[in-house]
Amino acid sequence: MRADAARKREQVVAAAIDELHDLAKAARKGETVRLSLDQIAARAGVGIATLYRHFPTKEALLEAVYRQELTRLCDAAPKLAQTGPADAALLAWMTSYLDFIDSKRAMGDSLRAMIASGAIIQAETRRRVAGAISHFLEAGAASGVLRPDVPADDVVAAMVGGVLAAAPDQHREQAERLLALLVNGLRP
């Protein structure tokens, strides 16, 4: 891919990420949201034909967004786990995970279709998230601020469960409280 084409592709993905984050904020305020490829193209400073040249379907674009955001989230864990107390760092990372989840809600049916088609494999996502969490658990066990006997997979299950169980009318606030409760339970 030529450098200018790669740059435009990156611009489109970045614009889609920004658009999804804005839609997530609007949805938290109770506004009705709809993802628009025209809006993403305009935000990226490219024509709609350029967007479709790189991403022939909305799902192709959203898959690229999903993968890039998951990578960013998981790649941040090792460094963040070493920045301070592991329990506080884990809670900060979990807040970033909530941002990731919130922006994916705007994908709606497209995300469900990608999962159903196998383009996004939930087990792979879960494995990567557990790998990220293991950095915090290891650092916390070494420093004595987190229990050494909790598997990362259990933390993922509890974290996802809390996010899914949060009441729709207070989703973000309740999810944050549930994650804080989870981290508190990980302390010795």
Q: What do you see in this structure?
A:
By secondary structure, the protein is mainly α. It has a single domain, classed as Tetracycline Repressor, domain 2 (Orthogonal Bundle). Helix content is 78%, strand content 0%. The protein is built from nine helices and no strands. The protein has helices spanning 3-28, 37-44, 48-54, 58-81, 86-105, 109-117, 122-143, 152-165, 171-186. The longest helix has 26 residues, at 3-28. The termini are far apart. The relative contact order is 0.11. The model has no long low-confidence stretch (mean pLDDT 91).
Write a brief structural summary.
The chain has helices at residues 3-28, 37-44, 48-54, 58-81, 86-105, 109-117, 122-143, 152-165, 171-186.
Q: Which labels suit this protein?
A:
188 residues; mainly alpha; Tetracycline Repressor, domain 2; 9 helices
Topology:
Layout lengths: L2 H26 L8 H8 L3 H7 L3 H24 L4 H20 L3 H9 L4 H22 L8 H14 L5 H16 L2
What's the Cα radius of gyration? 18 Å
Termini separation? 52 Å
Q: Spans of 5+ residues with little confidence (pLDDT < 50)?
A: none
Q: What's the order of the H and E elements?
A: HHHHHHHHH
| Mean pLDDT, all residues | 91
* Helix content, binned percent: over 70%
Report the CATH superfamily. Tetracycline Repressor, domain 2
